[in-house]
Write a structure and sequence with these properties.
- The protein has about 200 residues and is an alpha/beta fold.
- It has a single domain, classed as Rossmann fold (3-Layer(aba) Sandwich), CATH 3.40.50.300.
- The chain is about 40% helix and about 15% strand.
- It has eight helices and five strands; from the N terminus they run βαβααβαβααβαα.
- The chain has a five-stranded parallel sheet, with helices on both faces.
- It is globular.
- The two termini are about 30 Å apart.
Amino acid sequence: MDKGTFLWFTGVPASGKSTIGRGVEKALKERGIRVENLDADEIRANLSPDLGYTAKDRDLNTKRLAFMGKILTRNGVCSIVAAVSPLREHRDRARKLVDNFLEVHVMATLDTCKHRDPKGLYKRAERGEIADIAGWHMRLLKSLRWSSIPTRKTSIPVSTRSSSRWKRSAISRRPRGQPRRTQTKTRKRSRSGSEDWVT
């Protein structure tokens, strides 16, 4: 049985991670690909309601997400995680657990995220209630191997199509440790915003 691919979306709050993750999940299911979306907020609410947002709790939550992804991909299910996960070490830990791992940094400006603010985090921060938002109060450290999807100039639906096409092509990638094939960008792809990917 072929192993699944682990796709990890990282980015600041309100950048569009969960929205793109759900879009990719839908697109892959429509093509008959087995996939599970491990949304970080849903996992936290249902499996880890006792966790807060301390450094220790963030570490434990991402560790649980990585382990769940490992189990699923081992059984041939493609896994999607959408989590802020600002620390590089958390994402690298997940990368080491599976053979096929893809990290995507969903990018949006601070002003764009403040305007979206679906959870009201930025408003709370402006009132001084919280001071731990990645990309504002703390850095989001990029890994050395990642790709980017901008969601300011490119609409989230377009970003979703770009990501799902890339994800489908990645399913046939070689296991970890073997040479990686070079992706060739075409004119058709550039129209969908994928020219901003770093390969």
